[in-house]
């Protein structure tokens, strides 16, 4: 299992980015979470089959239609705690 922490920057809040991310992650069978940060970024954690995590990262680089992702920072996080499903955190 591959676990990564992500940070999406750009126009990613107020455009349903978190709900879209949850939907896409569930579609790929991934576990993890996503949340808005005070500075305007969206952060999260993705866990699952390495190929599916890669697919999710590609999807996140584009984001939902109303978003504009300028950067997607990805860091391997093999020891991170991951929930059973995929959560939107507040």
UniProtKB/TrEMBL annotation:
GO terms for molecular function: acylphosphatase activity. InterPro entries: Acylphosphatase, Acylphosphatase-like_dom, Acylphosphatase-like_dom_sf, Acylphosphatase_CS. The keyword Hydrolase applies. It catalyses: an acyl phosphate + H2O = a carboxylate + phosphate + H(+). It holds the Pfam family Acylphosphatase. Transmembrane segments: none annotated. Its EC number is 3.6.1.7. The active site is at residues 18, 36. Residues 3-90 form the Acylphosphatase-like domain. PROSITE patterns: ACYLPHOSPHATASE_2, ACYLPHOSPHATASE_3. Keywords: Hydrolase. Belongs to the acylphosphatase family. This is acylphosphatase. It comes from Allosediminivita pacifica. The lineage of its organism: Bacteria, Pseudomonadati, Pseudomonadota, Alphaproteobacteria, Rhodobacterales.
């Amino acid at each position: 299992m591959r676990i990564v922490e992500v940070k999406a920057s750009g126009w990613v809040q107020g455009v349903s980015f978190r709900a879209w991310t949850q939907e896409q992650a569930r579609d790929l069978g991934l576990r993890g979470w996503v949340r808005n940060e005070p500075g305007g970024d969206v952060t999260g954690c993705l866990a699952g089959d390495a190929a599916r995590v890669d697919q999710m990262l590609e999807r996140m680089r584009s984001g939902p239609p109303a978003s504009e992702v300028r950067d997607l920072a990805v860091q391997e996080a093999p020891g991170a705690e991951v929930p059973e499903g995929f959560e939107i955190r507040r």
